[in-house]
Structure formats: structure tokens, C-alpha cells
Amino acid sequence: MDILELLKQKRQEIADREEKEDYKVFPYPTLKETVRVMPKTKAELANIKGWGPKRIAAYGDEVIYTIQNPTEAAQAILATQKDIPQEQERATLTVSQFLVQANRALFGLGNVEIQGEISDVSIRQEMAFFDLKDTSGKECVIKCFVGSWQFGPMSHLIEAGLEVVIQGAPRIFERRGTFSITVRSIKPVGEGALKKEFEALKKKLEEKGYFDPARKRPIPKFVQRIGLITSAEGDAVNDFRRNLGEYGFVIGLIDVRVEGEYAEEAIERAFKTMNTAHPDLDVIVLIRGGGGLENLKAFNSERVAEAIIGSRIPVITGVGHERDFTIVDFVSDYRASTPTGTAVFLRTERESLIAQVDAAGDELKFTMERTIERTAQSLTHSVAELTNAFARTLEQKKLAIVRLGEHMQYALSRVFEKLRGLAHTLTGHIHEYEAKMQQSVYRIATLQETIHQRIEKRIEFSKNKLDTLSRTLETLSPEGILKRGYSLAYTKDGTVIRDATQLQEGDTFGVRVEKGRIQGVVKKVESVL
Question: Is 226 exposed, middle or buried (0-12, 13-18, 19+ CB in 10 A)?
């Protein structure tokens, strides 16, 4: 027994114990999400939608124990079932015991599928009650119930006279003792029913404003990154790629089922992935090949329509053939009718953009050539005007220079005349200054001779005195002393020897005499007190 079935039985056990409908214990979507998360603690249980503090306090421990210990939980459920008196024991049952036993037997059937015709529909507070009649001619009726958690997606199918296949869980409500099917899903039967379902859903979504052109997002002019949602093995993806052309498109493909029980969920999940994991996409493209209403069922679902409406990225659809219209075509931002048409649309947009760029380039080139030509003409005209203006200006300046030259010649002649007068005056002054200069030169020469004689006398006196001092100094100098027969002793490092203790036996020493030097070795040292 898998976890989902165990939790269903646990929910039913709690519902029987508390004498309430099982969906009031916790709704079926909450049950499925709990199985998906597989919580280990109440804290993890609190993160699941539908588990509030009251439900966690009331049922949390039981649910977590069932998930963590499935074998023991299954055995406990079987043991509980054995506690109810069996028919062979022929024990008398209370009403509640019988209803519990009956519900357990019905629960063992799981979710059943039943085909019939809807009748006697009653809708209140987003819940529906209806009868499902037998279509084989027998007077058989089953009461059916659709809870608020399932009503929205199925509301357009709950219509009297529509033949459907319902899927749900059978049970007997203890308080009223009535048998009913809690409906989980409704599927129309036959092409006519599918068409009717299509029209009903179309009307419903149109009333909600999903088809309003004002709601739709504009397709970017420059599409580079494409998110592709389709089957990786179908002809649609090959047609799309083949007709898209080599224009540098970057395509990210999410492989989904486009037909069958899990197609809607796969497409919905792909849209969520594209919007969350790849927000840099320019468009999302949803495509598949043609088929009947049964084949295109996933593309005529409210669930997929909601996924397209909720997409932040513009959506292009190409589903079926030219004549096929699906719900996704009405809610998408652009319908391209077929996978090939979708590729052609994107390719044409790119080709149109390239053509516009080429045309703009040609126009720019023509405009530049015209501009250069006009500029060249304007420049030639400006050069000619500038040359003429320069010649006129030069002629005017030439005349002005001639007149200025004449004025300057007259002015200079007067200046030269004044200069000649000044030169005559200056010559007289120069003669006068020459006479005075000659007198000064004579006086200087006389004074110079007197000074020269005095200097010679002073030098002679100083020379005589210097000779006397030199002879005296020579007598007192070391050289003079050496000439008188004295000698000068010094150590090997050049230090003058004044005391015998400066040397020891075996030391070398030198002796300076008047004419030369003597080297010796100490044989004996004697001190004189």
C-alpha cells in the first residue's frame, strides 16, 4: 500500500471518528502535496498549503507517524478493521459501526470512474450537487458532490444533460445515511461532449477577459531567444526548426507530453520553468501537430490557459492545422495556426527586420551621398567667394599701404633732418669731452707714476725683511738641525722616536740624516733616567 493510499485511509479514519466529511479533515490537494513533500516534522508540515495550526495540532502527529512508519500504520489500519464484528460472527452492529464498515469497504475501491449523464444540478457557495443518471436506459442514479477546492476547474462541465465520466471516492455520510461520490475530476464523453466542453470553457474564459486584446502582451520586434514547449519526438518540432531558418535564433526546448493524462501538468510546469529559470527569453512558443478534440484536449484546458495568462514572457501558439482553434490560441499573445506557421512568422519578422535595416542602410547611404555632394558644392562656392573677398581685401590693403608709405617717407625725411641737427650738436659735445678727457689722462698718468715708485720702495723693504726672517727660520728648521750633525729617528710607521721605550728588541726603525736615510734593527733598549 503506497503512502497516498495510507493517508487516504488515515483521513477517512479521522473523518469517521469525528463524524465529518473527509475533505473537512484536510482537502485532497493538501493530501497530494503532503505526499510529495513527505514531511518529517510539524515545522515542515506547516510549510504545506492547507495545513494550519489547528489541523497540525489535531492530526499532525498521526500523519507524520503514518509517513515515517508506513508498515506499522498499514497494520494498525487492518487491525482496526478486524475489530469490527464480521458477518460470520452474526453480531448485532450499531448504525455507526455498520456505516464505518460500509465506508471501509467502499474505501477499498479507491477512486472509481463512472460514466453517466448529469442531471438535477444544484450549485451554491462554489460547491455543486448533482445526480449522475445511467445512460443505458436503467433507472439508476448516483448522488455526486463537488467541493469548493475542485469546483473552479470543473464548473463549466457541471451542466444538466452532459454525458461525462466522473472520477471520485464513494462513501456514505454517517449523519444523513446517504450514499454519494466525492468527485475529483469530470471528463466529457464523445466528440460532441468535447465540443460542448470547449464552447463552455471558451465562454467562461471570455467572460473573465482572457481573450481581450488589450490584455495581450506585444511580441518583441527583435526576437533572439525562444523558449520552445513541445514534444521533442514529434513532427511539430522538426517542422518548426526546418522552417525557422538560419537567423541566429537561440532555442531552449522543454520536452513535454502534448497528449494524455499528464500533458496538462507537464505544459503548466514548463511555463513556470521558462518564467522562473529563463526570464531572459524574448518569447515562449507552444506548438503541436494536428488532431481531433480528444488529441488536443491538453490545449483546451483551463489549467494551461491559466499558465499562459500568468506568463510574464509573451506567448506564441501554433497548435493543429489552419482550421483548428484551441483555447490556448485565444489566450495567447499571437496565434500562428500551425508549428510551420509559427516558424514562418518568426522568420518573416526577422527577414522583415533585416530588409528594414538594409533599406535604412541604402537610404542612409543615399542621404550621405546627397549631403556630401551638396557640401562639396557649397564648399566650392565658399572657396570662390573667399578667394574673391581675399583679392578685394588685398587690393584695399595695397592702396592703404601705398598711402601709409608716402606718409612714412615724409615723416622719415623730417626725422632725418632732425637727426642731422642732433649729430652736429653731438659732434661739438664730443670735441669738448675729448679735451677734458686728455687733461684727465695726463693727471692719471702722473698719479700712476707716483704710486709705482712708492710700491717699488715698499716691495724692496719687504724683501729685505723677508730674507732676514728666512735665514733665521732656516737656522731653526729640522733641515738646518740635520746640517749641524744631528739625526732624526722614527719608527716603521713614521712616528718620531723621543723615548727608547717606543721600541723593543727586534723592531725595525729608520734614521734621517742630512744626506739620506738609514734602516736598522733594535739589538738592545736602554732607558736613561
Answer: buried
The segment with the largest mean pLDDT, out of 45-54, 62-71, 226-235, 494-503, is: 226-235
| 8 Å CB contact between 256 and 231 | yes
Structural domain for 79, as ranges: 1-83
**Are the CB atoms for 119 and 161 separated by under 8 Å?**
yes
Cα–Cα–Cα angle for 214, 217, 270, nearest 5°? 130
- Local structure of 502: helix, strand or coil: helix
**Distance of alpha carbon 181 from alpha carbon 184, whole angstroms:** 9
What does 216-239 look like in DSSP terms, one character per residue? SPPPPSS--EEEEEE-TTSHHHHH
- 101 domain-assigned: yes
What is the number of domains present in the chain? 4
pLDDT at 280: 93
Are 181 and 168 contacting, i.e. CB atoms less than 8 angstroms apart?
yes
Q: Where are the alpha helices (DSSP H) in 108-210?
A: 148-154, 190-207
d(CA 309, CA 331): 7
Question: Do the Cβ atoms of 276 and 220 come closer than 8 Å?
Answer: no
Residue 21, CA distances (Å) to 227, 373, 394 in order: 44, 90, 114
Domain end point (choices 132, 161, 188): 188
CATH number where 207 lies: 3.40.50.280
Residue closest to 305 by CA, chosen among 405, 201, 427: 201
14-18: long-range contacts (C-beta < 8 A, 24 or more apart)?
Answer: 14/59, 14/62, 16/99, 16/100, 16/103, 16/174
256 pLDDT tier (thresholds 50, 70, 90): very high
CA distance 129 to 120: 8
pLDDT digits (tens, 9 = 90+) for 301-346: 999 999 999 999 999 999 987 777 899 999 999 998 899 999 998 9
Long-range contacts of 246-252 (CB under 8 A, 24+ apart): 247/347, 247/350, 247/351, 247/354, 248/224, 249/223, 249/224, 249/225, 249/346, 249/350, 250/224, 250/225, 250/226, 251/226, 252/225, 252/226, 252/227, 252/228, 252/278, 252/281
Sorting pLDDT into bands at 50, 70 and 90, what band is 80? low
Query: Taking a C-beta distance cutoff of 8 angstroms, is the pair 510, 499 a contact?
Result: no
CATH number at residue 159: 2.40.50.140
CATH code for the domain in which residue 29 is found: 1.10.150.80
Question: Of 84, 97, 91, whose CA–CA distance to 19 is shortest?
Answer: 97
The Cα-based distances of 285 to 10, 193, 213, 340 in angstroms read 44, 29, 18, 12
Q: How far apart are CA 404 and CA 351, in angstroms?
A: 76
526 pLDDT above the threshold of 90: no
Residue with cell 471518528: 17
The C-alpha atoms of residue 513 and residue 485 are separated, in whole angstroms, by 8
Q: Report, in this order, helix, strand and coil percent for the chain, each rounded to 5.
A: 55, 15, 25
Pairing outcome for strands 283-288 and 250-255? unpaired
